[in-house]
Design goal:
Helix content: 25-40%
Structural class: alpha+beta
Number of helices: 3
Order of helices and strands: HEEEHEH
Strand order of the largest sheet: 1-2-3-4
Number of strands: 4
Distance between the termini: 43 Å
Shape: globular
Radius of gyration: 15 Å
Bound molecules: zinc ion
Length: 123
């Protein structure tokens, strides 16, 4: 099974709807760097702001990141690699001057939107 960052998950759509309601406009599933295999879920290129809505399962959320019992060693390694890749991508993008924000899909869409809004609208 391939780890995939799916776009248009329910929490992501809800956050985008909330941002739109607040008058914010953004790019969706946007690739910030041509040489990096990474797409931000929501992006403001001119603000150099990238937002990722991480799925609880694939990104090993500490609250909901349940592990399958069978083949657990393989899964642990797989999910640990995902977490390491997330961190590595965040570091790389930050080093290139991007502001990176990661949220869990379980977070309240209203408060995530509020947080993002304050970043986009900061002077
Ligand atoms: Zn979670």
């Amino acid at each position: 099974m391939r780890r995939q960052r799916r776009s248009n998950t329910a929490p992501e759509v809800e956050i985008r709807r909330e941002l739109h309601r607040r008058g914010l406009r953004y790019r969706v599933n946007w690739r910030p760097e041509a040489d990096l295999r990474v797409r931000a879920d929501i992006a403001w290129p001119r603000r150099r702001l990238l937002v990722f809505i991480d799925g609880c399962y694939w990104h090993a959320c500490p609250i909901h990141g349940t592990r399958p019992k069978s083949n657990s060693e393989w899964w642990n390694a797989k999910l640990a690699a995902n977490v390491a890749r997330d961190a590595q991508q965040t570091n790389e993008l930050t080093a290139r001057g991007w502001t990176v924000r990661r949220y869990w899909e379980h977070e309240d869409p209203q408060s995530v939107a509020l947080d993002i809004e304050s970043l986009v609208k900061r002077p």
